Model the fold of this input.
Amino acid sequence: MRKKIVAGNWKMNKTIDEGVRLVEESFEELKGVSDSESIVIFCPSFIALGKISSLTHGRKNIFTAAQNCYSEPSGAFTGEVSATMIKSAGADYVILGHSERRQFFEETNQMLARKTDVALAAGLTPIFCVGELLAIREAYQQEQLVERQISEGLFHLKEYNFQKVVIAYEPVWAIGTGKVASDEQAQEMHAFIRKIIAQKYSKHVAAETSILYGGSCKPSNAAGLFSQADVDGGLIGGASLSATDFAAIINSL
Ligand code: PGA
Done:
């Protein structure tokens, strides 16, 4: 059975101390989740990763993720952080291809294919983000765009490696805007993503792939989104910065 996951992407927010407080408050709010099979992931900045990982370590189904990694395993790349370093800080996941990385740091599908390879080689699980800009949706091109992001970024993987990847569908027009995709829009795209995975690999692989929704997901809309057949949880930005809201979203799974 595919995993249900809620990941909180803090983006460039929270100092180390603020992050520690947020995680401790979240643990308080989440009493009981340790018994559930759902996975909770905190995604702090690189510099808070070691500290936050030390708090999540040993807790059942609670993990940390980095928000990015570099596309080469090591070397003369001043200022970059490798997948192996992230793993050594205690993280188990890494977000790749977030739309802010694609938009502000010009990350391409080809670059993301390399990042996926180094992440998997280091033992990290990629949370691979895809999603269309508003103009693409208005032109009804969203499926073609998402298919291209997935096929160029992930379909070079052998089946056993693809099976380790989590996908996050995040329509760019819904990120941080308060405009959430409707339950139906989310379901439609998630079903489409599952269909192309089945065509490339197999129905079994498609059925086992966790596909998260992201973009203005909050306590008031999470249950509707998560009740869709192909929505396996969420990648949460703004609402993950409040322990109460984040816990309410997790409890909507
Ligand atoms: P948001 O961000 O929940 O603040 O819209 C989601 C994301 O960017 O992962």
